[in-house]
Design brief:
The complex is a heterotrimer of chains A (about 250), B (about 90) and C (about 400). Chain A is of the alpha/beta class. Chain A has a single domain, classed as 3-Layer(aba) Sandwich (Peroxisomal Thiolase, Chain A, domain 1). Chain A is built from 9 helices and 10 strands. In chain A, the strands form 2 sheets. An 8-stranded mixed beta sheet of chain A has the order 3-2-4-6-1-7-10-9, with helices on both faces. The two termini of chain A are about 15 Å apart. The longest helix of chain B is centred in the N-terminal third of the chain and has 15 residues. The two termini of chain B are about 15 Å apart. By secondary structure, chain C is an alpha/beta fold. Chain C contains 12 helices and 12 strands. In chain C, helix 7 crosses helix 12 and helix 9 crosses helix 10. The two termini of chain C are about 15 Å apart. In chain C, about 65% of the residues are buried. Classes of the chains: A alpha/beta (about 250), B mainly alpha (about 90), C alpha/beta (about 400). Chains A and B meet through helix 4 of A and helix 2 of B. Strand 3 of chain A pairs antiparallel with strand 3 of chain C, so a sheet runs across the interface.
Chain lengths: ~250, ~90, ~400
């Protein structure tokens, strides 16, 4: 695999009110705003990303917008076109791709607890097929109206979280050619159906990339953890192997 | 309903339907186009406005052709509503 | 993706559609122009058809509709390929837009009207994440390898097939089971209706009087591998691109679709002149057909009519089976593979008066001919384009 991380950004949903005043974001959903907020540090470092590939991962996608569309349908008998357009899983990527003027391959993926991992896996496929750069964004937002019902399915110590994360990825050859600093290298990802630790605290399905970035950031200039075990609520886990670039 | 009052209500509906709250309301009038020379709404925005107008004013836009003809400016929408609702009916806002 | 690449072989194909619940029936109905669309302009798979499917794959009986039809298509594909099971080093990619929506949509509508409890709804909404479909199908196949969902709307399955072929080439999986599955839902029917994209008449792709699309449901799956032993066709190339134009409308000049087709041909190492047939996305929407037609004309040359052999044949089959959204690329790729096997190009069923503004070479009737290369297109919401090149086993690129 060997994905070189050139830039990264994380959004926890703070300071999104600036988008609400921005005409370019008048039709943006929360997923779209958070995804863009996560992308901002990446764009600042690499302003020209229009030909990069772009993978977006989300486990529940535009669930809030779907809920709003069906609510209008159920209660007023009205199907709202803007809500429908924004309810598709691909809508988040479509919006962000438009913002970047992206003309390269853009792929939406989803894989429940392994959504973040699948996002990286798909980026790896695209880069190894010959696309020099790939943006990977994972985003998940909470839906207040269904949260109580949803939480009953999870262990008591777990709470539902939300977040968006963006990384710019490439391979070793292109990292050298760009002369770009590599934050860390994703060496490999493994998937295991059993053997995970119980999950407690804030969790969202596509949080693997954020957890990976946290580990990298927390290591500062020191040793990056060689292996991250990311446990999921159903007892499965992934193992992500990391290294510093040589 | 007095046309000026209706125009004001149409403006409110359009602003809410497609989230034009960043636009200075004083710059929108009967002559304001929905398209490139005015509010710059795209085709899906216009469909959203159609749905909102139908719901708020109890009118029916029969098909896409009717929509194209009557949903060009704020004023043309107000005229469409006026022509398709009873003179004494108040908008159901 | 412009590197020339080794072909990947298709050793098994399975399809369950509104126009035939196995590949042979689907193909025969396509050839005889027996549409699977109903009087509402929707392509459905009936409950009685589902019972028959369960009879074919009894272990699928407790699966919900999208998983069931996928599982039956998978069973057919794997039987043809001689795959008794999937191994841990295989891969699985599934394209879908709405996943297991039958398990939660009605409950959400009821919940929104306070007709069921939070607790009840909380159980069903667990099936909303698209990944739950991959889990269910993996469990049904006793598969423990890598899998994921592609959810790029109408281009999802073509992307999935392209990604699957790369995955194998890159040695990350040994073989790959890939395809798409989609069922109708209130969300998609009411949603597309609200966008004024639906036609209650049968769609007429590329026709000057075309009025919109017909939604449908269905599934198709492929066994892909590097081993050509049992292959009946191959994937020579794939190309993906994005329009960067509008969320729901394609670029009017088909800029992105052109790029996707061009990239696919480059990867296959073939020129436009070597393409026998373009199986278009051809939804019957005014915008899509115009855009795609412009892209085809730009890349392959403007056709002067059916007798202009300097351009490839181009047609759409959506009058037969409707538009199954994320699964459409898979369902129509299944027709492409059958076309290669049966040496038959399908005309655009439903086309009466070709739009003079769209300069593609329409077959007046089905054509019996050797097929070297087929380009399969999809154009999706979000401006997402994907093209595949399917080739006969004995066809190589000129370069």
């Amino acid at each position: 695999m060997k994905l070189h991380i050139l830039a990264a950004g994380i959004s926890r949903g703070q300071d999104l009110s600036r988008f609400q005043r921005d005409p370019d974001f008048r039709k943006a959903t929360l997923n779209m705003m958070m995804g863009y907020a996560a992308l901002e540090p990446v764009i600042k470092k690499f302003p020209k990303l229009d030909t990069a590939a772009f993978v977006l991962g989300s486990s529940s996608g535009e669930l809030q917008t779907t809920h709003s569309f069906l609510s209008s349908l159920a209660n007023q008998g009205v199907a709202r076109p803007l809500l429908f357009q924004n309810s598709l899983y691909n809508a988040t990527l479509g919006f962000l791709a438009l913002k970047l003027g992206a003309t390269g391959p853009t792929v939406s993926v989803s894989n429940r607890h392994f959504t973040g991992e699948s996002c990286l896996e798909t980026a790896s496929i695209l880069i190894d097929s010959g696309i020099p750069l790939c943006i990977a964004v994972a985003v998940e937002t909470r839906v207040a109206a269904i949260e109580t019902g949803l939480l009953q399915n999870y262990p008591g110590e777990m709470t539902l979280d939300e977040g968006a994360v963006a990384v710019l990825l490439t391979d070793e050859k292109n990292a050298r050619a760009l002369g770009a600093e590599t934050l860390a290298v994703v060496e490999s990802i493994e998937y295991h159906k059993q053997g995970g630790e119980p999950v407690s605290g804030p969790y969202y399905d596509s949080n693997a990339i954020e957890r990976m970035l946290e580990a990298i950031i927390n290591s500062g200039d020191g040793e990056i953890p060689k292996e991250l075990k990311l446990s999921k609520p159903d007892g499965s886990f992934s193992r992500i192997r990391l290294s510093r670039a040589e | 309903m007095h046309e000026n009052q209706l125009v004001k209500q149409v403006i409110d509906v359009v602003i809410d339907a497609v989230n034009l709250h960043h636009v200075d309301r004083n710059t929108i009038g009967a002559a304001t186009s929905l398209g490139d020379t005015g509010l710059c709404l795209d085709s899906v925005d216009v469909l959203e406005v159609v749905v909102a107008v139908e719901q708020k004013f109890g009118v029916k836009v029969a098909d896409a052709e009717v929509g194209k003809v009557h949903f060009r400016t704020i004023g043309s929408i107000a005229q469409f509503i006026q022509a398709n609702t009873h003179a004494n009916t108040t908008a159901n806002l | 993706m412009t590197k020339s690449a080794a072909p990947i072989f298709i050793t098994g194909v399975g399809a369950v559609t509104s126009a035939g619940t196995n590949l042979e029936n689907f193909w025969n109905n396509a050839v005889s122009e027996t549409s699977g669309l109903n009087e509402l302009g929707l392509g459905t798979i009936s409950d009685s058809a589902l019972n028959t499917l369960i009879g074919r794959v009894p272990e699928a009986k407790n699966l919900c509709k999208p998983a069931l039809i996928a599982r039956v298509a998978i069973d057919d594909a794997m039987k043809e390929a001689g795959w008794s099971s999937l191994n841990k080093d295989d891969g699985l990619i599934i394209a879908t837009t709405v996943g297991q929506i039958p398990l939660w949509e009605d409950d959400m509508l009821q919940y929104l009207q306070q007709k069921i409890t939070t607790q009840q709804f909380g159980k069903s909404i667990l099936h909303q994440p698209l990944g739950s479909l991959a889990e269910v199908i993996s469990t049904s196949l006793d598969f423990h390898g890598k899998s994921f969902i592609v959810s790029s709307a109408c281009s999802a399955a073509t992307q999935a097939i392209g990604l699957a072929s790369h995955w194998i080439r890159q040695g990350k999986v040994k073989r790959c089971l890939v395809g798409g599955t989609e069922v109708l839902s209130r969300l998609t029917i009411e949603g597309f209706r609200s966008l004024q994209l639906l036609s209650s008449d049968f769609s007429k792709p590329f026709d000057q009087s075309r009025q919109g699309i017909n939604l449908s449901e269905g599934a198709a799956f492929f066994c892909l591998e590097a081993n050509p032993e049992r292959a009946t066709a191959k994937i020579s190339g794939s190309g993906f691109s994005t329009d960067a134009y509008h969320m729901a409308s394609p670029h009017p000049e088909g800029r992105g679709s052109y790029q996707a087709m061009h990239a696919a041909l480059q990867m296959a190492g073939i020129t436009p002149a070597e393409v026998t047939w373009i199986h278009a996305h051809g939804t019957g929407s005014r915008a899509n057909d115009q855009s795609e037609g412009a892209a085809i004309a730009q890349l392959f040359g403007k056709s002067a009519g059916p007798n202009d052999s300097s351009t490839p044949w181009a047609s759409s089959s959506k009058w037969i089976h409707g538009h199954a959204l994320a699964a459409s690329g898979a369902i129509e790729s299944a027709l492409c593979i059958q076309a290669i096997r049966k040496k038959t190009i399908l005309r655009t069923a439903g086309l009466v008066t070709p739009d003079p503004l769209i300069s593609i070479r329409h077959p007046a009737k089905n054509i019996q001919t050797e097929i070297r290369h087929i380009v399969k297109n999809t154009l999706g919401f979000g401006g997402n384009n994907a093209s595949l090149v399917f080739s006969a086993l004995n066809s190589e690129g000129a370069r």
